[in-house]
Each structure stands twice: as structure tokens, then as C-alpha cells.
Backbone:
């Protein structure tokens, strides 16, 4: 099992004023060399992806035609070897991704902890404490986890999509149109639905922070109006249900189009086999390829969704860190002025 040491990564604690403003800048400043290494592993994986389809096609055609079984056995062993190679590279990449993500989570938590630990203990506002709690326990995990897949995931899934689609066009251009028809409508409704989800996610994050701050405020400074907290909790429920409805509706439409694509390949492919225009192995390879197109396309949609949602979360965290630092500087300056005034009074009590 691979191990990673701190020599590969500086344990970064960002000063508030130098906190990257966007998720992209954070990823670049935080893990640029690791992103390059992960990208190289992704390229190697998707370059190996079309070979099993061709081997599968040849095995089926060889079995249908009959004859010597030894070529089929050899192809089967090659198929297993490719699967093991690709799977092992994926294993290493997933562990590497997780390491990168966890280091990012750790750095974000240390950044927030370092900043808030310098706050005057008796002056820390309830809202700031609520923001810190939310970031430390929830939002840092989502952001750090996405750092690990920021570059490698779209490169891997996009490469798989193009590799398999190119292979399908090569062996049977007419049937490859089915894949294009399956994906095209998704290019229209997926961004529209995703934009609606993103708006609700941003509102939910802000509302959850308000609830966290309200709970601490209630414990420290007095009772917060119960109706206000209840309304915030109801708002979170409504936002979550709206997100679920949109997400599951999008999944339903995508799955429906995928099933239509499978039925179309079976119908068109069966007609081609009966009319002698293609082989059974080609149809089998197309069915397998169609599923391989559906999966990376779905993963790309998920990555796009996570990108926009995580970008919004990171923007809110970076803004909150700067706000906390500004509040801390203001409190320290005020305490310093108060201490100077008290010293002057003590020095010249009669004035």
C-alpha cells in the first residue's frame, strides 16, 4: 500500500489576507504538482479503456464462428491482464486522490483554527463561532475532498468518453449516432437543472450558518426569538427537498435516455446482424461501450455539479475567514486603545 510523507506537501496555513479568493486558485496554490501526477494517471487509465471492448468483440465473434478455442483463451487472459492493470492504477489514483483531499481538509481546518484561536476569547461573536463550527465540521470536508479530484476526474471521465466514442465510430458509424442522440438532450437540460440546484445549495449554506450562529448566540448572550430559528429550520427543509426533487428528476431523465439508447442499439444492431451488415460481437461491444459512455457522462455531470457547489462553498469560507480576521483586528485595536486609556488614567489619576 503506498504511503505519502509530508515532504511531498507543505502543511500550509494561509494568512487570512493571502487566502486564495477562488477554488481554482486554492487548488493551484495548494496542490499543483499533485494535480499533474493525478492527471498523468488518469490519461494512462483512459488510454487502456478501449482495448477490452475490442477484445470482447473478438472473443464473441470467435465463439460464434467456432473453431480453435486457443485464441479465445489467449484473448481472455489478455482481457484479465488489462483489467488488473487498469484496476491497480485506479487503486493507486484513488488513494492518492484521498491523500490530497485529506491534506487540503487538514490545511483548511488549521487555517480556521489558527485564525479563531487568536480572537479575544471574551469578545468572539456568536456568529463568528457559528461560522467556525460549520466550516470545521462540514464545509472543509466537501472542499478538501473535491481538491483531490479537481483535475483528474474530468480528465479521466472525459478521456473515457472520447476513447469509447471514438472506438464505436470506428467499428460502426451508424450505430454510433445512437450515443450522440442519447447525450445531446442532456447537454440542454443538465446545465439548467444544475443551475437551479446551485442556487438552492448556496441559500442552504447561508441559512445553516445562521442557525449555527443563532444557537451559540442563544447560549452566550440570551434567548434568540424561537420563531426566527424555527423559520430558518423550515427554510432548510424546503431547500433540501427542492434540491432532492431537482436532482432525482435529472437522474430520471438521464437514465431514461440511457435506456432508450440501449433499446436503440439492440434494435438497430439486430437489424444489421440479420441483414449481414455487422457481426454479433460488434453489437455486444456496442452495448458494453454504451454503458461505458453512460457512466463517464454521469460522472462528468456529477463533477460539474460538485464544482459549482464546492466553488460556492469555498467562496463563502474564504469570505468568512477574511471577515473573521477583520473582526479580530478591530477587536484587538479596540482593546489596545482601551488598555492605553486605562494606563493613562492610572498614570495620571487626578486628570
Residues:
Amino acid at each position: 500500500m503506498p504511503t505519502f510523507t509530508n515532504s511531498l506537501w507543505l502543511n500550509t496555513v494561509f494568512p487570512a489576507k493571502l487566502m486564495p479568493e477562488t477554488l481554482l486558485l486554492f487548488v493551484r496554490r495548494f496542490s499543483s504538482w499533485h494535480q499533474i501526477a493525478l492527471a498523468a494517471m488518469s490519461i494512462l487509465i483512459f488510454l487502456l479503456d478501449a482495448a477490452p471492448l475490442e477484445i470482447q468483440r473478438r472473443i464473441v465473434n470467435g465463439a460464434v464462428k467456432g473453431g480453435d478455442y486457443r485464441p479465445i483463451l489467449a484473448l481472455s487472459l489478455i482481457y484479465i491482464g488489462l483489467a488488473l492493470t487498469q484496476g491497480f492504477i485506479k487503486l493507486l489514483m484513488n488513494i492518492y486522490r484521498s491523500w490530497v483531499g485529506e491534506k487540503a481538509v487538514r490545511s483548511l481546518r488549521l487555517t480556521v483554527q489558527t485564525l479563531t484561536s487568536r480572537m479575544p476569547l471574551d469578545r468572539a461573536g456568536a456568529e463568528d463561532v457559528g461560522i467556525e463550527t460549520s466550516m470545521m465540521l462540514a464545509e472543509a470536508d466537501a472542499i478538501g475532498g473535491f481538491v483531490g479530484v479537481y483535475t483528474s476526474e474530468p480528465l479521466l471521465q472525459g478521456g473515457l468518453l472520447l476513447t469509447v466514442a471514438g472506438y464505436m465510430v470506428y467499428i460502426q458509424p451508424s450505430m454510433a449516432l445512437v450515443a450522440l442522440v442519447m447525450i445531446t438532450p442532456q447537454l440542454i437540460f443538465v446545465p439548467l437543472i444544475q443551475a437551479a440546484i446551485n442556487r438552492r445549495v448556496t441559500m442552504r449554506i447561508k441559512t445553516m450558518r445562521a442557525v449555527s450562529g443563532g444557537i451559540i448566540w442563544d447560549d452566550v448572550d440570551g434567548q434568540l426569538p424561537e420563531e426566527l430559528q424555527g423559520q430558518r429550520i423550515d427554510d432548510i427543509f424546503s431547500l433540501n427537498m427542492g434540491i432532492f426533487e431537482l436532482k432525482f428528476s435529472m437522474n430520471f431523465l438521464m437514465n431514461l435516455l440511457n435506456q432508450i439508447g440501449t433499446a436503440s442499439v439492440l434494435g438497430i444492431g439486430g437489424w444489421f446482424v440479420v441483414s449481414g451488415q455487422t457481426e454479433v460481437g460488434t453489437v455486444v461491444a456496442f452495448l458494453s461501450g454504451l454503458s461505458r459512455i453512460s457512466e463517464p457522462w454521469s460522472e462528468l455531470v456529477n463533477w460539474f455539479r460538485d464544482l459549482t457547489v464546492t466553488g460556492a462553498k469555498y467562496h463563502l469560507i474564504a469570505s468568512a475567514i477574511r471577515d473573521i480576521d477583520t473582526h479580530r483586528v478591530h477587536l484587538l485595536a479596540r482593546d489596545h486603545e482601551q488598555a492605553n486609556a486605562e494606563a493613562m488614567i492610572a498614570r495620571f489619576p487626578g486628570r
Notes: The domain at 19-327 is CATH 1.20.1560.10 (ABC transporter transmembrane region fold). The longest helix spans residues 280-347. Residues 1-10 have pLDDT under 50 and may be disordered. The chain has nine helices and no strands.
